[in-house]
């Protein structure tokens, strides 16, 4: 059973989420501030976190960074902040998706399901598929990346984006296709997601992130993985 941690200081939103999630057989924990959220995450190990950014004791971005210090759990931001810069800040800290308030419950649940799917183990068809670039290796079956003899910690969304590119090695994957494969069919114009996540992957994997050899972006078109 999938366990969800809901973090929001608005009681009516927490209540609505708990009712809807439990009705769909999710297990739910709730926190009304950041400190409680971090404690519950460590104690309960949720499968996905739904997080408001406007918390009473700390900014939600701090919670994201706190979680990313030790876990790859999918994080779905739920916030009234609408500006592109605020979305990019949350994504850059390690969030996997961003939903603005007011929101539709069906859309939120669809995005939550997509976030959970991205964190699931790879299918049998990807076993024993290992790609070596010379700078790092990608093990598609184990969902692992190794650089310099050490495993590189990727979030589920970072991994899924890398996986799509590696599986299409050498071919340009269009922006819309990438967005829909990684985040879901309702996406297609959120190019800031790609910009943020490609930059994160380059920082973690490229020898010179400002001049990438393997994770290449064709402006306005898409991205490509080169060995």
From TrEMBL:
Signal peptide per UniProt: none
Residue span(s) of domain OmpR/PhoB-type: 128-227
Keyword match Phosphoprotein: yes
Cellular location(s): Cytoplasm
Domain called Response regulatory: residue spans: 3-116
DNA-binding interval(s): 128-227
GO cellular component: cytosol; protein-DNA complex
InterPro entries, A to Z: CheY-like_superfamily (IPR011006), OmpR/PhoB-type_DNA-bd (IPR001867), Sig_transdc_resp-reg_receiver (IPR001789), WalR-like (IPR039420), WH-like_DNA-bd_sf (IPR036388)
GO biological process, one term: positive regulation of DNA-templated transcription
Alphabetized GO MF terms: cis-regulatory region sequence-specific DNA binding; identical protein binding; phosphorelay response regulator activity
Superkingdom of the organism of origin: Bacteria
SMART domains reported in the protein's UniProt record: REC, Trans_reg_C
Keywords: Cytoplasm, DNA-binding, Phosphoprotein, Transcription, Transcription regulation, Two-component regulatory system
Keyword flag Cytoplasm: yes
Modified residues (4-aspartylphosphate): 52
Protein function: Member of the two-component regulatory system KdpD/KdpE involved in the regulation of the kdp operon. Upon phosphorylation by KdpD, functions as a transcription regulator by direct binding to promoter regions of target genes to positively regulate their expression.
Protein name: Transcriptional regulatory protein KdpE
Source organism per UniProt: Streptomyces cahuitamycinicus
């Amino acid at each position: 059973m999938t366990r969800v941690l809901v973090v929001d200081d608005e009681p009516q939103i927490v209540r609505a989420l708990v009712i809807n999630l439990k009705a769909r057989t999710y297990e739910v924990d709730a926190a009304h501030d950041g400190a409680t959220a971090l404690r519950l995450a460590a104690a309960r190990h949720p499968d996905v976190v739904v997080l408001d950014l406007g918390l009473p004791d700390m900014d939600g971005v701090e919670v994201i960074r706190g979680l990313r210090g030790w876990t790859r759990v999918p994080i779905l931001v739920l916030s009234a902040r609408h500006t592109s810069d605020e979305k990019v800040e949350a994504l850059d800290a390690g969030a996997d998706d961003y939903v603005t308030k007011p929101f539709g419950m069906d859309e939120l649940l669809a995005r939550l399901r997509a976030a959970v799917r991205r964190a699931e183990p790879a299918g049998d068809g990807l076993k024993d598929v290992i790609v070596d670039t010379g700078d790092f290796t990608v093990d598609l079956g184990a969902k692992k990346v190794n650089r310099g003899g050490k495993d590189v910690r990727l979030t589920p969304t970072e991994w899924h984006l890398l996986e799509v590119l590696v599986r299409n090695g050498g071919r340009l994957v269009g922006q819309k296709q990438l967005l829909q494969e990684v985040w879901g069919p309702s996406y297609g114009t959120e190019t800031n997601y790609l910009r943020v996540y490609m930059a994160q992957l380059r920082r973690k994997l490229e020898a010179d992130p400002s001049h990438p050899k393997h994770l290449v972006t064709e402006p306005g078109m898409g991205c490509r993985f080169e060995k």
